[in-house]
Amino acid sequence: MIEPVTPDAQAGILDLNNRHAVELSWLEPQRLAALVGEAFHARRVGEAEAFLMAFDQDADYDSPNFAWFRERYPRFVYVDRVVVDPAARGRGHARALYLDLFEKAAQAGHTVVTCEVNAEPPNPASDAFHAAMDFEQVGSAALHGGEKKVRYFAKRL
User: Fold this and answer.
1) What fold does the segment set 2-156 form as a domain?
2) How far apart are alpha carbons 1 and 24 in whole angstroms?
């Protein structure tokens, strides 16, 4: 069952996020709470089997990836982070979270959902997932002095 990321669920979400900090980036409790408060959509499966957090173009968010989309799209929803606990993989949680987001975005009048996927370090599972969800590459960037490379994707709703 998909539920909002409520304050009482944030400890589990923080733990899940930080176990995947290489892919997502480390968060402190206060930063997670601020991001959830700013999010267009923040949902979880179970206590912390999986979660997704997305922002729209009006968010007060300092991510360079978010800024890349803001410079190119007047209106969009940006998936900032999505993760599934390894013990819960293969159950369709990521797909369900994305479908839930697509529905919410369409209801709000959005026509495009965006995200980035790591190219360096590579994330082949995420590549395959986003291809299956009909995302198309729309750009790329090197971040942190070239230590991290990402590819930008968009899906028309």
Assistant:
1) Aminopeptidase (3.40.630)
2) 23
Domain ranges of the chain: 2-156
Q: Counting Cβ atoms within 10 Å, is residue 35 exposed (0-12), middle (13-18) or buried (19+)?
A: buried
Q: Using one digit for the tens of pLDDT, what is the confidence trace for 19-61? A: 999 888 899 999 999 999 999 999 999 999 999 999 999 999 9
Contact 153, 123 (CB under 8 A): no
CA torsion angle 57 58 62 65 (round to 10) = 0
Round to whole Å and give the CA distance between 17 and 32: 9
Task: Please state the pTM of the whole predicted model.
Answer: 0.95
Q: Which two tokens stand for residue 24?
A: 């997502």
pLDDT grade for 143, boundaries at 50, 70 and 90 = confident
- Rounded CA-CA distance 46/43 in Å is 10
The torsion defined by the Cα of 42, 75, 66 and 98, in degrees rounded to 10, comes to 40
